[in-house]
Specification:
The protein is 43% helix and 29% strand. The chain is an alpha+beta fold. The strands form 2 sheets. Strands 1, 3, 6, 9, 10 and 11 form a 6-stranded mixed sheet that branches.
Length: 353
């Protein structure tokens, strides 16, 4: 008789609990977890027999402890995975932005048989051009009557313009540069300067990519002013022979392309054998030639791949979604375990009474 009353009260508590939970959550939600829990717990008859034997409460307490420990461990693991997913998403976005803002340089060398004739813009000031002549195979014949005008075969243009950084008038002597790199073509120039008010005597020069652009331009003054704005300036000193070896570098960027000259120069002292009366005229010597038959091409390549970043971010968001879903299910599972524990405790108190 006592067993029937206990079984009846237990079934009523189960029905009441199921009704409360049915109102709290939608049907079918968290059913798998509930079925696992119910399959692990003994049915009413078995619980009754275990209670009669005195071992039911201890077994239920041990199972509850194990489940709680297992739940805490799972929560910790999912929190750890969530932190890793957030860190990976942040690191991936940072790497993508860094690669996007800092492209990688790809350097290639293109071999050519000849170059376009560069423009050599000279700013002699008060110095006088004595001679300009083409030579080949790195050979320059001995000087004849240095300091006197020499025969020349260079094509040149005399351009006057206003400087881009100052309003003063500038005179530039633009010479057509060498082209036949295979034959080691060079240009030998000689200048003379009688008097100077400067502390240091030097002649400034500038290199730009194509002498033909100056010839074809409608306004040579504006062309030279733009060149001075975009290209670098160099100098060679008096009393020396400055041998300039040029190389061409083309850079292809994200927005525009640019051409840059690089140079190597060697300086040799001039042994002046003129009479002392003529040494007051300071002499300048300059040689221009190509260093080698290669054009260095630099391309800026963006290595950031948006599809890889999107795939990693999708994986991170899926991990976050799963973690949030698991946290929700875990909380509901804990609430259900709490209700069962309170139900079992009330049942034991009723049995004692």
């Amino acid at each position: 008789m006592l067993g029937k009353e206990r079984s009846k009260s237990y079934n009523e508590l189960i029905d009441d609990d199921d009704k409360d939970e049915g109102n709290a959550q939608s049907p079918g939600f968290f059913d798998d977890a509930i079925e696992d829990l119910e399959s692990e717990e003994p049915d009413d008859g078995t619980s009754q027999e275990d209670d009669n034997k005195g071992s039911g409460p201890s077994r239920r307490f041990s199972k509850t402890c194990l489940r709680n420990v297992f739940t805490v461990v799972l929560i910790f693991i999912y929190l750890l995975l969530t932190g890793v997913a957030i860190f990976l998403a942040y690191q991936n976005i940072s790497d993508f932005l860094e690669k996007l803002n800092n492209p990688v340089m790809s350097v290639t060398y293109k071999e050519v048989d000849s170059f376009l004739a560069p423009g050599i813009a000279l700013y002699p000031g008060k110095a006088q051009l004595l001679g300009c002549k083409h030579h080949f195979h790195d050979y320059i014949p001995p000087l004849v009557d240095p300091g006197k005008p020499q025969e020349g075969d260079c094509a040149m243009e005399d351009v006057t313009y206003f400087g881009p950084f100052s309003k003063r008038k500038i005179r530039a002597l633009v010479v057509r540069g060498p082209t036949e790199v295979r034959r080691k073509e060079l240009i030998f120039m000689q200048f003379s300067l009688n008097e100077t008010e400067e502390d240091f005597s030097a002649i400034t020069y500038m290199l730009f990519s194509n002498f033909g652009d100056l010839i074809d331009s409608a306004n040579k003054s504006i062309f030279m002013r733009d060149c001075e704005k975009n290209y670098s300036m160099w100098t060679f000193s008096g009393g020396f022979r400055t041998w300039v070896k040029m190389s061409l570098v083309k850079t292809s960027g994200k927005n525009n392309d640019s051409v840059e000259f690089r140079q190597e120069s060697a300086v040799v002292k001039f042994n002046d054998k003129r009479p002392d009366s003529k040494k007051s005229n300071q002499l300048f010597f300059a040689v221009f030639e190509w260093r080698d038959p290669y054009i260095q091409e630099i391309r800026l390549i963006v290595t950031a791949n948006p599809w890889n970043s999107i795939a990693i971010l999708c994986g991170c968001f899926m991990a976050l979604f799963k973690a949030a879903n698991f946290a929700k299910l875990t909380i509901q599972w804990i609430i259900r375990m709490r209700k069962r524990h309170m139900r079992n405790k009330n049942r034991e108190l009723k049995q004692i009474n």
